Amino acid sequence: MKNIDDIVSHIINFSKTGLTGSEANTKKRIIEPLLGSLGWDLLSNEVRLEYTIRIGTSTTYVDYALMLEDKAVVLVEAKAFDEVLSEVHASQIIGYGRIEDVQWTVLTNGRVLKIFDTKAGKTEKQCLVAEIDLEKLPQHASELRLLSRESILTGEIEKTAKRLAITKAAIRNLRQRQEELIENFKKVLLKITGPELENRVQIVSSQLAKLTVELFEEKAETRPSYKPPSEGPIVEVPSISRQDLSVKSSGEVILCPSRIEGVGFLKKYDAWGFVNISKDHEPEYFALYVAKPHSSVMYLAEVDSITQPLKSKEELSKIQEQDLKTFETGKRVIHLKLGSLVELKDPIPLKNKKLAPRALRYSILEKLVKANYVEDL
Fold it and tell me: At what angle do helices 156-176 and 178-193 cross, to 10 degrees?
């Protein structure tokens, strides 16, 4: 996340002005710079102002819609710096998310920012993923990163929200079933000490049950702790149009399909694995088809080298253990030329879902430049 110190300065300076009652000034001075620091391009179609929400025959608007591939992925409702965020405000933005089938919604006044998962429940409490005190940045920067373009693109926010929901449910169950814990502790202790000490065992069992819940809450992850896939600064990939590729020399393209989570691996290592490539092919270019929700060819790079069929994980010293889940002996890794990876401004969409690529295929660069649909490749 970029310029976090600048955001803190914006908040401090703005709080000292006489403009804190203005929603428009709050948006311009705090919220929009904040979205920019999270990787969203405010000057492009990625960020749409006054996004239309249709409810029956009536129309309303949300302050911002954050877009990926022309689809809203986050809705942001802004309030004035001095306005207290209420349950009514939260219910409204969560409701808009459900109407538009947008999972992630945000409510903020520039001082506090709340992230909601509209699919997690019905109430504000059930849907709340994180509540961030923006005046206490950068301590809460890891929570704020959940809203970064990278986090949404790679699906990291979904993984984190799911993990937190499971933890919160476990804590809730422990609290509700504390009496059951007491009885279980009591049974075990009485079996060891004998029934003569039942009164003392009852007291100890109650204390143990209480301590168990407290320790679980203390050790469990109850706040988001997001690290970008590279476990370092977010990798910025330049965007170009396919027409710009026409100046490159012609050559074979290897097209690999991937779930959205695979984008993190691609950017992290400037490589792609693990694939079966026959000796008959020596592609000059690599292209990545990203499945739902994008269903498009989104990335292109020049191939630097392709490993020989791998015999063991030890041959891949630069790839971390957690990223070797799909490793298989006999498969190969495609290494890309550093700095050659680009994101296509005009990705190639899939026309027929039944024909979505499920294995690697080959094409040529000229087809990739001119294709209207993935099927044209």
Answer: 60
Comparing CA positions, the residue from 235, 237, 234, 239 lying closest to residue 45 is 239
Segments making up each domain of the chain, as ranges: 4-141, 160-219, 239-376
- What pLDDT shows up at residue 231? 43
The CATH superfamily assigned to 239-376 is Hypothetical protein. (2.30.130.30)
Strands across the sheet with 58-68, in order? 47-55, 58-68, 71-78, 104-108, 112-117, 128-133
Other Cβ atoms less than 10 A from the Cβ of 179: the count is 10
**33-66 as b/e: b if 16+ CB within 10 A:** bbbbbbbbeeeeebbbeebebeeeeeeeebbbbb
Instruction: With beta carbons less than 8 A apart as the criterion, state whether 83 and 109 touch.
Output: yes
Q: In this prediction, what percent of the chain has a pLDDT beyond 70?
A: 94
Structure token pair of residue 257: 């399909």
Q: Which pLDDT does position 113 carry in this prediction?
A: 95
Q: Which 3 state secondary structure label does DSSP give 14?
A: helix
Same fold? 4-141, 239-376: no
What is the model's pTM?
Answer: 0.55
CB 89 within 8 A of CB 77: yes
Q: Which amino acid is at 67?
A: M
Of the candidates 257, 293, 242, 248, which has an alpha carbon nearest to the alpha carbon of residue 102?
293
Better-scored residue on pLDDT, 156 or 31: 31
Pick the CATH number of 4-141 from 3.40.50.150, 3.90.1570.30, 3.60.15.10, 3.40.50.720: 3.90.1570.30
Both tokens assigned to 190 = 């009485």
* CA distance linking residue 117 with residue 95, whole number of Å: 11
Extract the runs of DSSP E, i.e. beta strands, from 31-174.
Answer: 47-55, 58-68, 71-78, 104-108, 112-117, 128-133
Cα–Cα distance measured from residue 301 to residue 359, given in angstroms and rounded to the nearest whole number:
18
